[in-house]
Write a structure and sequence with these properties.
mainly beta, about 50% strand, 4-stranded antiparallel β-sheet, 1 helix
Length: about 325
Amino acid sequence: MPELAFELPAPSFVVVHPVLPLLYAVTEADPSVVHLIDVNEPSEPALVQSLSTGGHAGCHLLIAPDARTLYVTHYMSGDVAVLGLLEDGRFAADGPDQMLGHAGSGARPDRQEAPHAHSSGFAPGGRHLLVADLGTDELRRYRIDDAGALAEDGIAATLPPGSGPRHFAVLGNLIYVTCELDHQLRTLRWDPASASADVVAEVASTTAPHRTGEEVADGHIAIVSNPRGADVLLVSVRGADVIALFDLSPEGQARYRGSFDAGFWPRHFAVIDEELWVGAERGHEVRRYGLADVLALPPESGVAEVAQVPHASFPVTSPACVVGASR
């Protein structure tokens, strides 16, 4: 049974150190703050450090594979901060090493009046950082040097007007992007020679209808290995309140299989020890599904069907992010 172990003001995203028993949590504030938390004793986590990121409304964190750099994206200020890390996981300085901004807007003045950096990830090959900008319908590109610092390098991909890219997942030379505003899952093919990507396919993120909330808003995305067949792409869709499954062909084509009920407003999810954990933010619960049950979901028998998958439910106030801690 989950228990409240530590309180922070409006934590919006969490990442785990790849080696040490440490968590980094960013608060969705102005200015945003990243907190370093020691979870060596999970029942008694301890705050180690707190660092202002210099941006507004931090919404995503990405830690480099070598654990020397932490990248912070800010939704409201639309920029990315680069924080250097020491070998023990602590922050190397008393502020960001870099703060890189961006200009522009999109087709929807209610949501795209300015840049809104929503997440970041490594491009195929690992030489560039890509930032999904919901406000400008772009994947911004930064070159990464050996120390983890970034250099502005233009736009890697431009998506259709009003699409609102939010999160993405990479498999080989393909990039799968959830688009929050027009509810399409888009597949982009990366060209290493030009360090750019073009949209090669798009499909509705779910056939499930709008069920709760004021709107439909696509959320998180992850690729899951399926021991029984093709890899599976999971996409959370808020408002429809489902997680959609897409089977990936050997060529990487995403084929819609179906959707299952994931609670009220499934903002984020993670696969942990052969289980799928979903944070239903507005339902104030975390759901636990057996991954095997999820992967066994049959193809939908009718358009707009919402399947039910067995799960356990745990009360948690406004869960925004789900991760598995180091062991």
